[in-house]
Amino acid sequence: MRLLPDGTAPQARLLLFGRALRALVDGYVAVLLPAYLLALGLPTWQVGLLSTAALLGSALATLAVGAWGHRVDSRRLLLAAALLMTATGLAFAGLSAFWPLLLVAFVGTLNPSSGDVSVFLPLEHARLAHAAQGEARTALFARYSVAGALAAAIGALAAGVPDWLAAHAGIDMLLALRGMFVLYAVAGFGVWLLDLRLPHAHQTAQPPPAPLGPSRRQVVKLAALFSIDAFAGGLLVNALLALWLFQRFDLSPGAVGLFFSVAGLLAAASLLAAPHVARRIGLLNTMVFTHIPSSIFLMLAALAPSVSVALGLLLARAALSQMDVPTRSAYVMALVTPPERTAAASFTAVPRSLAAALGPTLAGAMLGAGWLALPLLACGALKIGYDLALLATFRRVRLPQ
User: How far apart are CA 120 and CA 145, in angstroms?
Assistant: First the structure.
């Protein structure tokens, strides 16, 4: 399979490489973040609160991009975001107290979830949407998601590096964990080098972006529904799923990283299949009818009697749960007019991030109180409700493209 679909602008290649590099470090950070915070002596509820701060900060930054980003060259914003990523990694590597870490999590680019919730998302989505048309756009978004999933799967394996360094090289575990955040900063600089090669907005064939106009009503509906899904997902971001596995089955960071790596590979395979499924049954049906079974698997995992059964159910969930990601992005981009795409990407992402930000604190409190099954059960039930509401609201809406 070629990296880019036929008829795709060459700049998309840089965006795919940048997405992969960010996902590579996000893959291990989501696993090591709770281990790092616990090693610093922070309680479980503060792990959840810090994850909430990271998601809330990303939501506000994304809102700013949606409101004022169309006035600034997206290349400049991407370069600034990459430098912020570098600063975030260095700050996390050097700080130990909760309140400074909370501040960095809020203003930085740390990603405790399985998806991309950073300020990079709307900027890259808008450029991708202009880089291809029709079915090629869906295929491009799938490749973008696959690049992230594969890189995150490889990165999750790196979660075992601090354990290995502590056991075989005699390096202090906390020092090894700090070193992983330094690598995160290095990756941010690599993303900056990639974005430096992007053309300026006036050099592309894309029309000038603008705030929402004729598609506002549909985008508001989507944003409201997406927020339900995101709130549910916030109850079980990867950092908290890792924490759940630590607490429920006493797994090591290396073992949890291996699980996330396998789950990421399954997700990548499903992302490759998503455009083919969407071509047969449509974007909306693909979003809904792959999502519901994955939520059922999650709820069953919450009640699993053993670690092998729980991991098996969670892997089955991973094989389906991400198929809605490229189809959702393509659906939003196809539903709105081309000048509205940057704003639509931002204004559907912002409620998701805001809603998702509420979940980690609640889930951290549930886990801290010993209600280990509740975050998984609540997440699955809410996601099923979202899928049914999405289908009922948009099943009669015809896409312009």
Answer: 13
Query: Among candidates 319, 316, 294, 287, which has minimal Cα distance to 388?
Result: 287
The values of phi and psi at residue 214, to 5°, are: -65, -20
Tokens of 202: 């006036």
Angle between helices 134-157 and 11-39 (to 10 degrees): 30
Confirm whether 355 is domain-assigned: yes
Domain assignment present for 125? yes
- Whole-number Cα distances in Å, 47 to 18, 178, 239, 362: 28, 16, 9, 11
How many structural domains does the chain have? 1
Q: Is 50 exceeded by the pLDDT of residue 332?
A: yes
Q: How many angstroms separate the CA atoms of 401 and 333, rounded?
A: 10
Least reliable range by pLDDT among 1-5, 45-49, 146-150, 285-289 = 1-5
Summarised one tens digit per residue, pLDDT across range 278-324 is 888 888 899 999 999 999 999 999 999 999 999 999 999 999 988 88
If phi > 0 it is left, if psi is from -120 to 50 it is alpha, else beta; for residue 108 that is beta
401 part of a folded domain = no
Residue 16 CA from chain centroid, whole number: 15
CB-based burial label for 381 (10 Å; 0-12, 13-18, 19+): middle
Amino acid at 100: P
Quote the DSSP letter at residue 112: -
Query: 234 near 360, Cβ under 8 Å?
Result: yes
Residues in the chain: 401
Q: What distance in Å separates the CA atoms of residue 206 and residue 173, rounded to the nearest whole number?
A: 49
Q: Encode pLDDT of 68-104 as tens digits.
A: 666 677 888 899 999 999 999 999 999 999 999 999 9
Is 31 a member of any domain?
yes
> For residue 285, what is the domain's CATH number?
1.20.1250.20
Which residue intervals of 69-215 are DSSP H helices? 74-94, 98-107, 120-131, 134-157, 161-168, 173-195
Q: Classify 41 in phi/psi space as left (phi over 0), alpha (psi -120 to 50) or beta.
A: left
Which domain, by its residues, includes 315? 11-394
